Amino acid sequence: MDEMLDIEQILREKQKNHYVTMKKLELEGHPIHVIYIPSITDTKQVQDAILLPLQEWKHKESPLPHAFSAEPLLQLEKKNDIDHYLLDGFTLLIEQDTVYAIDTAQFAYRSIQEPVSEMTLRGSRDGFIESLEQNVALLRVHLRSTDLKFEEFTIGTRSFTNVSIAYIDRTVNEELLKDVRARINAVQEDYIPDGGVMEQLIEKNNYSLFPEIQETERPTKVSSALVEGKVAIFVEGSPSVLLAPTTLNSLFQQADDYNFKWIPASLIRLMRFMAAFFSVMLPSVYISLISYHHGLIPTDLAISIAKTREGVPIPSFMEALIMQLTIETLREAGIRLPKPIGPAVSIVGAIVLGEAAVTAGIVSPLMVIVVSFAAICSFTIADYALSLALRTISFVMLFAAAFLGIYGLILAVFIISIHLVHLQSFSVPYLEPFTPFYVKRWKDSLIRFKLKKGGGRVE
């Protein structure tokens, strides 16, 4: 037995914890301690499958595992293992200097339902929940392959968070798999409450605004990613699954793109890219034109803009900044408020504040139109992490346009482009397949080509 295992110390520690239940049985003069946590343990199973067999055991001279024919026993040898299994809902059996563990876990989880953050028009509507075991089972339902493999990890110096990675053998890149394992094993955080925290801990470019790992709650999306050779990371207690690697192109793709005919689906995807561009660039381009480059505006339009700005006491940059901050505040309020009133507050607040600002002469009507349209365009970006990145960049563009006009915008775009070209997600270029230039892989990028009937996704 490992020297780190002190039975007397273990018993003293567990007796002091009020949330731990400890029962003592006498078998042939030898005490057996049964230890479990009632709140996360199936107490009926403990009674029927552990306590009763021990009380009715006829062969007390045999080793303890022989008392349980149906329940497998795990022999533990380290103090950390004992705490880990106990907090996972296992029941501990201590006989003299030997400690066994029996799986009796029973956690309270919500039922499987449609994810709120990822809406779909056609296709499967089930989503992951907070149970790691249920999520793994749900993935197996959607991806019935003998090559689907899982590996388990335990991280967190205090929380003992269970993490599992999934991949398809002979499809996944081995170097990618080694990199994922190494990053997970390198995590030394005390507590991992959610997949979002895990995502930040295993990313390398922590100062980048763009997400290096894609997050989803849909089993169908995870299945498609695994077939493409990616790795899925499950975190206990999180309904979101992390997909690595990811690219900027994949963040714009949605499951509905493959559930409808390829021509309208391609148009929708192109519209999504254009909307993202407008959400970032439209307000800043408008500011640069009316502040520095009046000559680039047609004469009639310039006169119309000048009329709408008549009487506005603040510069156009401050107009746009006030409107952007107002919309972001309303958006955040709509998310945090209860569901019955959240959307109403966002819509009514935007209408009332916009109308009041124009009536008071604080902002011009055209500025309200430009900023509102940019905000609507940002809602087409389904991936929330990417949406946050682009919304942050839109403020950077505003300041660049306010100080240097078009030249500032070009400089900002140039710097962001350099960053994206150098950015990698688990050694995969972030702008793939655009750079490096892979023409053959453009079939499923900007345009979603028709499905290949003979096998494969596109032709």
What does this protein structure show overall?
- The protein is elongated, with a radius of gyration of 29 Å.
- By secondary structure, it is an alpha+beta fold.
- It has three domains: 7-103, no CATH class; 132-246, no CATH class; 260-439, no CATH class.
- The chain contains 15 helices and twelve strands.
- The protein has a five-stranded antiparallel β-sheet with strand order 1-2-4-5-3, with helices on both faces. It has a five-stranded antiparallel β-sheet with strand order 6-7-9-10-8, with helices on both faces. Strands 11-12 form a two-stranded antiparallel sheet.
- The model has no long low-confidence stretch (mean pLDDT 83).
- 27% of the residues are buried.
- 45% of the residues lie in helices and 13% in strands.
- Helix 9 runs antiparallel to helix 13 (365-378), helix 9 packs parallel to helix 14 (384-404) and helix 11 packs antiparallel against helix 12 (342-359).
List keywords for this structure.
459 residues; five-stranded antiparallel sheet; Spore_Ger; transmembrane; UPF0353/GerABKA_families; Spore germination protein
Major sheet: arrangement of strands: 1-2-4-5-3
Q: Helix amount, in percent?
A: 40-55%
End-to-end separation? 61 Å
Order of helices and strands: HEEHEHEEHEEHHEHEEHHHHHHHHEE
| Coarse structural class | alpha+beta
Instruction: Estimate the strand proportion.
Output: 5-15%
Number of helices: 15
Number of DSSP-assigned strands:
12
- Major β-sheet profile: 5 strands, antiparallel
Mean pLDDT: 83
Low-confidence parts = none
